[in-house]
Amino acid sequence: KIKNLLKKKGIKMSKKLISIVVPNYNERDTLDELYERTTKVMQTLVDKYDYEIVFFDYVSTDGSKQKIEELCNKDKHIKAVFYSKNFVYLRLIAYIAVDSVLHYTITHFI
């Protein structure tokens, strides 16, 4: 009912946003595949949802930061947070929480 009322008044409802959080530490070699697979899945949902892929880089030393910056410049859906210090305990918590969810989501959609 609310959608119809808003539609009559000319107000468009925006799509729901899906935020995919990706903790990263020295994973440069896997970033392209992660990006391609995740984007492929999200493109199938773009009619109903908007999305963003947010990389959290924990002071990588393998060129991950540069690769993530390339992805940000290539795709408006990519966001990045670059830490100036490597907070190991935060990375561990993020890895446990996010990696298992992301792995489940990607493998079950593909």
List keywords for this structure.
about 110 residues, alpha/beta, 4 helices
Largest sheet: 3 strands, parallel
Strand proportion, as a percent range, falls in 15-25%
Radius of gyration: 17 Å
Structural class: alpha/beta
Please identify the oligomeric state: single chain
- From the spread of the alpha carbons, the general shape counts as elongated
- Determine the fraction of residues in helical runs and give it as a percent range: 40-55%
Poorly predicted ranges: 104-110
Q: Major sheet: order of its strands? A: 1-2-3
Helix count from the secondary structure assignment: 4
Q: What is the average per-residue confidence, as pLDDT, rounded to a whole number? A: 79
* Topology pattern, helix = H, strand = E: HEHEHEH
Report, as a whole number of angstroms, the end-to-end distance.
34 Å
Topology, number of strands = 3
Structural summary, described in words:
This protein is of the alpha/beta class. The protein is built from four helices and three strands. Strands 1-2-3 form a three-stranded parallel sheet. It is elongated. The C terminus is likely disordered.
Short description:
This protein is α/β, with parallel strands linked by helices and 110 residues long. It has helices at 2-8, 28-43, 64-74, 88-109; strands at residues 16-24, 49-57, 78-82.
Give the SSE layout:
Elements: H1 2-8, E1 16-24, H2 28-43, E2 49-57, H3 64-74, E3 78-82, H4 88-109
Parallel strand pairs: 1-2, 2-3
Helix pairs in contact: 2-3
